[in-house]
User: Which sequence fits this backbone?
């Protein structure tokens, strides 16, 4: 069973910080064969969602307040699930946890994501709608998606 917690950057342990960067690199750089600048200066302003099975980090996302990634939106980014845990609803559990936290923390704010285009249906299941045209981000097709506040 995967359990989720959320922490600000300055209270992450050294091991948690290592593990989240290692997971992000394993998927976004190695698996997806995409060389890009993962450490982008936004982690210090983010809430970090850690999905652990025992002591092992198997899922992760970061939550960003309005103005960090988008002027008019709060955001969810760096959504990642370790390969061995995909297809077991861990991604949906992670995303539900993220949405619940943002809806509690920023109840009247719309949420925007930059989604890999092949995951459009995944995010639609969580109430997101595509906005604009697809675009390349670090060589991978992406789409903007927004979930309007209720």
Assistant:
């Amino acid at each position: 069973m995967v359990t989720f917690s959320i922490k600000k950057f300055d209270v992450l342990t050294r091991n948690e910080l290592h593990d989240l960067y290692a997971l992000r690199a394993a998927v976004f750089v190695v698996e997806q064969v995409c060389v890009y600048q993962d450490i982008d200066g936004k982690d210090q302003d983010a809430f970090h969602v850690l999905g652990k099975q025992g002591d092992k980090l198997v899922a992760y996302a970061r939550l960003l307040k309005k103005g960090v990634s988008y002027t008019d939106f709060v955001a969810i980014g760096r959504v990642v699930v370790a390969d061995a845990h995909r297809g077991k609803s861990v991604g949906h559990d992670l995303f539900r946890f993220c949405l619940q936290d943002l809806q509690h923390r920023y109840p009247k704010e719309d949420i925007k994501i930059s989604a890999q285009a092949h995951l459009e249906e995944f995010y639609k299941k969580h109430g997101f709608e595509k906005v604009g045209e697809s675009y390349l981000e670090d060589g991978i097709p992406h789409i903007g998606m927004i979930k309007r506040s209720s």
The beta strands are 3-8, 46-53, 56-64, 74-81, 111-116, 129-137, 140-147. The longest strand covers residues 56-64.
